[in-house]
Amino acid sequence: xxxxxxxxxxxxxxxxxxxxxxxxxxxxxxxxxxxxxxxxxxxxxxxxxxxxxxxxxxxxxxxxxxxxxxxxxxxxxxxxxxxxxxxxxxxxxxxxxxxxxxxxxxxxxxxxxxxxxxxxxxxxxxxxxxxxxxxxxxxxxxxxxxxxxxxxxxxxxxxxxxxxxxxxxxxxxxxxxxxxxxxxxxxxxxxxxxxxxxxxxxxxxxxxxxxxxxxxxxxxxxxxxxxxxxxxxxxxxxxxxxxxxxxxxxxxxxxxxxxxxxxxxxxxxxxxxxxxxxxxxxxxxxxxxxxxxxxxxxxxxxxxxxxxxxxxxxxxxxxxxxxxxxxxxxxxxxxxxxxxxxxxxxxxxxxxxxxxxxxxxxxxxxxxxxxxxxxxxxxxxx
Amino acid sequence: xxxxxxxxxxxxxxxxxxxxxxxxxxxxxxxxxxxxxxxxxxxxxxxxxxxxxxxxxxxxxxxxxxxxxxxxxxxxxxxxxxxxxxxxxxxxxxxxxxxxxxxxxxxxxxxxxxxxxxxxxxxxxxxxxxxxxxxxxxxxxxxxxxxxxxxxxxxxxxxxxxxxxxxxxxxxxxxxxxxxxxxxxxxxxxxxxxxxxxxxxxxxxxxxxxxxxxxxxxxxxxxxxxxxxxxxxxxxxxxxxxxxxxxxxxxxxxxxxxxxxxxxxxxxxxxxxxxxxxxxxxxxxxxxxxxxxxxxxxxxxxxxxxxxxxxxxxxxxxxxxxxxxxxxxxxxxxxxxxxxxxxxxxxxxxxxxxxxxxxxxxxxxxxxxxxxxxxxxxxxxxx
Lengths: 382, 383
Prior knowledge:
The structure holds two protein chains of two kinds.
Chain A (H helix, E strand, L loop, with lengths): L8 H17 L2 H9 L6 H9 L18 H13 L8 H12 L3 H13 L4 E4 L15 E5 L2 E5 L1 E6 L6 E8 L2 E8 L4 E6 L5 E6 L4 E2 L4 E3 L4 H37 L1 E2 L2 E2 L4 H30 L3 H30 L10 H13 L4 H20 L2
Chain B lengths: L9 H15 L13 H14 L17 H13 L8 H13 L2 H12 L5 E4 L15 E5 L2 E12 L6 E7 L10 E7 L5 E6 L8 E12 L3 E2 L5 H7 L4 H5 L3 H17 L5 H29 L9 H21 L10 E3 L2 E3 L1 H7 L10 H12 L5
Parallel strand pairs in B: 1-4
Antiparallel strand pairs in B: 2-3, 3-7, 4-5, 5-8, 6-7, 9-10
């Protein structure tokens, strides 16, 4: 099939190493056990992933990482999506570690990064003030200056890994701008939602939390920019996972339709189903194009608005396409597609979860348009 | 001696074309969604011919530009970006390429220069009343009678036959053979006795295609291309690079920009329901363009075009249709006005786009046939 042509060798090897890992270590049975556990993932598998270097792709070499490109990151997540792996490769490396790397506090980075890279410690990001929020304009927690440090109050919604995290990056809105802070210890969980893909997300309360100056990752001049940057990078990773999820769900369904006999023939021979299958294939290829364009913008453009537009275009296409693919896969499987025991359910749930997380397709379409509109006004002049 | 275009840097090549199009292309050929007629396009075609730019894909020794894939894509991009209407070019893109590959030396020497000089204008006699998607079931017959082939039958949906001087015809030469195997490829003058043309008016109001009746049409024995009964193989071999251009996003892009201009006049950008759909369609076009670019890149890096190229045709034509349907919806009562209407400061024609976007999903292999092919050859679905 028309797929990923002309990738550099190291990227092909990265894909192969994920596929190899999945063959050796992962089965749908094992996945189900992890999903049903408290954190929704397997801590031992997480440690192995860290040993394989998957937590360190975008971390610069001088900080102990691999210093690879966004295209490599997208390839990793594409393969992770194919296997529907629930480990927090978006949250810890891209939302937490990347904030530390982009931040201004080298001492804090040196203190915290090694354990995170090694998979010995889980940390999360708390920022979100409301459902469907895009970034720094809708930060939940508030901060006020207190000596050299900051006093926090308020709440963050949809905090991932809240039951497993031993530390947090917190984005808080100060009068001077958004600050990024490191908060040690377990989050104060006010309430918990378990999402359809097994990830628990919490409302975390910050009332009375004090943060010393030494734990400031980024001050109000740069905090918003870094927050928006890590969120958009994570969105691209989630888009890549969605592509993998939909491809695998589609392939599984095609295989099923070729062996499922009704009326004396494989149901894949029915034209009505063939045409619908082609429609899904088209959406998958559009999603791949949108993702590629997003990767190109993230690695090739310094213009935040241009990058935001292309990343939103990618997330909206990948989200919509994945949602279409999995619902059609349920229908094409017939009754067994509605059974939880059918492995398709892992992909359905993953698609639902990833499509909604970090803002859904509708929100991203709106952001894409507002960026286009802004760019047009910039061109037209005052 | 023609310059070596393939040795030029791409930007220089593009600018050369861009400047020429800007300076020389008649304005009535720009941003025309409808198919233009020969009398409208011929002066422009002659200008291109004098420049040596009429046949980008033909080899240099036959008077073409001999472009490699990269430059060919750039060539089409520049014409598309400038909004230049596609002239009647079947002789260039179909017959010329076919003769270059399969024609005899005498045929090449006779026909190719006449196509290049715009003296001969060709049309394609493939479809018949009983042979549309199932083209191989065609019944037009050719029988050898001394020094002549005698052709009898009927062709239909022959694009711009009324403007053409010549026609190439698929006809059955062996009624006993399995259906694809008894077909041959013929060349005929349109003024030959026994050929009658009846234009067919389309929903858009144009006479874009015709019926062509063939009653005891005598053509010289040598007017066959390739071997007897080899016509189907020849016709199929033509589906090369042109399939990329069938997937060009230009029609959808043009319609979207017209939709936007019309919507501004109607002040509907404040309506959430309008905006939601407009943004969705815009992203559909963006992703079409990104996918087109991905295919173009793959071609440039030497990949062969597989059946997957059909997704461009399917998505491109259906996106164009969705945009045009939304145009007549947004236009309310203006949406049923026949012909261009002045709306504020814009001349709009939503109904025109609605009709003009219809045939894309039918010609060149209906989108249903394209889906059949993709399902079988790419997704390996049986039956």
